[in-house]
Protein: Flagellum-specific ATP synthase
Organism: Sphingorhabdus profundilacus
Amino acid sequence: MTTRLAQAARSIFESLHLETATPRRVGSLTACKGQFLEAAAFPYPVGTAVRIAQNGGGFVTGEVVGFRGNKSIIQPFSQRLSVATGARVFPCGRHDHIACGDGLLGRIIDAQGAPLDGRPLTGCQENWPITGFASSPLVRGRITRPIDCGVRAINGLLTIGEGQRVAVIAGSGVGKSVLMGQILEGIDADVIVTGLIGERAREVSDFIETKLTPRIASKSVVVAVAADHSPLLRLRAAMRATAIAEYFRAQGKKVLLLIDSLTRVAHAQREIGLALGEPPTMKGYTPSSLALIPQLVERAGIDSRTGGSITAIYTVLADGGDLEDPIVDAARAIVDGHIVLSRTLAENGTFPAIDVARSLSRIMPDIVDAEHLAAAAHFRQLWSTHEQNRDLLLMGAYTAGNDAVLDDAIAMHGDMLNFVSQPMHSSINFGASRDALLQGFGL
């Protein structure tokens, strides 16, 4: 018996490789400030994963997000803490890479990659950096092909190209979710990756049950983090969704990435930045929260090496309908097109409530033919003319015959509204959208 125990102990110690082992420094908590903790004697780099011993046993996990002097600042993943000063803080590797693979298709996961649908996650052997690979701008391919999104107004007037980045800008309750559901139903994509960031838990369940039909669910990956989770998890959920889309693009797939919403991602970074002492700017946004938007958006696009593409749609919440909000302005400046939803149209029952005059696809002139482009320009002219003279028309101060363009805009206003509106659960392909536009508004 003694000999067997000695052999077992020898094999255990041999497997430890004690000759190359180094000490592991363990820190201790010194402060709890809001949602963040401070640890002393813990000189590990930003991004290090940690475990913090709780009173009564067990651990809470977190991540080093910064440091102040000789103390590390830690963001715990759970907001239900039972820790006290002096609690031990253990390093446990890094969160730089995530598991990817075909096993993600049809699954719903959280920001840490744990399945939310109660089934074990298998078939994910590939590691992918959560912040993506650094690449040359020359690797990004040109956008030359339109992508069918199933929405007539977008296909016809704001044509999206394969690999384009688009911001959907709207206030609350204007129909972003309705439009997203229509795009999901009609999009021509091999893989759909959806990041539900900072949504109400009810909305997450509603999205999964009503928007993910069996045909869509089989090729979809959903990364969901509700609004009551820590800002670090909300931020990591957006990064994880983007990294998963990058992985499938590297396989040569045509990927749709939907982030709802980019505003809440910026809010999460703002919370972290303010806790770290960054100076607030307009509306309290820190420099890092504004810098995060291009870092995230620039990861989408076409990979000329593999032929794969990420067509990305980011919803942006315009607080109070303010289209000059810092996040709205930063997103609009970096994307390849933006779709603005109008509260006035929504209140009048027009869905999707797309404000054609304020919306734009910068890629459209490169991916549609001249006849299509001319018809879209004619539609926009009529729409804008009617909007600019709306008050004049309501007062009855305009006399027909004074302006030929305005006369046409008045006569065709009903046709324009009919073209923009579309039933919630319907899908109209690109060819039918183009034909309808040329038939009604072609020159």
About this structure: The chain has 16 helices and 17 strands. The radius of gyration is 26 Å. Residues 231 and 325 are 21 Å apart (CA to CA).
